[in-house]
Design a protein that fits this description.
9 helices, 8-stranded mixed sheet, Rossmann fold
Length: 211
């Protein structure tokens, strides 16, 4: 029997790190063609453009980099160097093929990122803060590896934003003076060729600086 190709519904139902590793090991080889191209997936490029337009510069950490779509978009915009981190070794192997990254780091963001403090002048993330994936609990780990003044561009699924408590988390970070200059532009995740129940979904791009 032919194995079912993973899809967005499977990704949104993930509940453990091991589930994530298993799903993305199965999906890595077909992700770019079947999902990104097939569903007219705009979010990685839009996240990269938002980061660059805000004045973001390298070195950048691409958190939850997957197959490297956001990193490739950053490089096309002249933003370098970029490092990738992801929980899936299989997805990182695909990312390396794009020749967009200086280094790749296999890591579970819930357990932190094994690099020194203040290593990066920017942090981006596209598609990681969404149903079945990660919430605001990993923001401290990302702030730890960012230098003061570093720009962030983190896409958050708009339906997931309130449900996961991002508004409260950003309020705490702002009031504690950990971050500044927060804006939340809302963008479409998919282009006009997308199909299915999520084709009209939107994301908020959390743009801010580490204070």
């Amino acid at each position: 029997m032919k194995k079912k190709t993973p899809g967005l519904a499977d990704a949104y139902e993930l509940s453990t790190p091991e589930d994530s590793r298993r799903l993305y090991a199965d999906w890595a080889g077909t992700y770019d063609q079947d999902f990104a191209a097939g569903q007219d997936y705009l979010l990685p490029e839009l996240t990269a453009k938002a980061f660059a337009a805000a004045g973001g510069s390298g070195p950048v950490l691409d958190a939850g980099a997957g197959t490297g779509l956001c990193g490739a978009a950053l490089r096309a915009l002249g933003v370098e160097p970029v490092d990738a981190t992801d929980i899936s070794a299989a997805m990182l192997a695909e990312a390396l093929r794009k020749d967009a990254y200086r280094d790749v780091i296999e890591a579970d963001l819930m357990e932190g990122i094994p690099v020194p403090r203040s290593s990066y002048r920017g942090v981006v993330s596209s598609g990681t803060f969404t149903h079945g994936h990660l919430g605001p609990e990993v923001l401290p780990a990302l702030l730890r590896v960012a230098a003061p003044g570093a720009w962030f561009a983190l896409s958050v699924n708009a339906r997931f934003y309130e449900k996961a408590g991002f508004a409260e988390a950003f309020d705490r970070l702002l009031s504690g003076q950990w971050i500044k200059s927060l804006t939340l532009p809302e963008l479409r995740i998919y282009g006009p060729r997308a199909t299915g129940p999520h084709k009209d979904d939107t994301a908020l791009i959390a743009l801010f600086q580490k204070a």
